[in-house]
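Chain A, query sequence.
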Amino acid sequence: MYIVKAEANQVERIVDMSIRAFETDVNVGGVKGDCPPEFDSVEWHQQMAREGHLYQAMIENDLVGAAIVFPDETKCSVYIGRVFIDSVYHRKGYGIRLMECIEKNFPWATEFNLDTPCWNERTNAFYKRLGYRIIKVEDGFVFYQKRNSEPNTIQNFT
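Chain A, predicted structure.
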């Protein structure tokens, strides 16, 4: 798997994947319709792509998921705003591979931060398994952080 900044012609497919992926949250404690803001908005995803925050996850030539990532080069941290794998690819290890790609894509980062709803058993277990630690719980969300003890000092501005 590899990630690249999303291509404009892929945004609608990415949104379709987002809808399928987040609608499966009802299987892990979510309430129908309780999805992330703008998860189904083509316009919002187009804006994220224009701003360079939307990445598409690829296996060879197949689009399998996406991520919205906000690097902060000044503080050497990356906020992972959203990750999702198309539901047809769930339970195949692609989520783990996507997170590894994000971490490798920002070798200069000393920390990665993200949050997920408290009720989502799947994502909470997933982030813990990947080495993320809880830094706080607030307003129904669990905030996670993973520190990179030896970041690569060569900056990658992809």
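The chain has one domain: 2-147. The mean pLDDT is 88.
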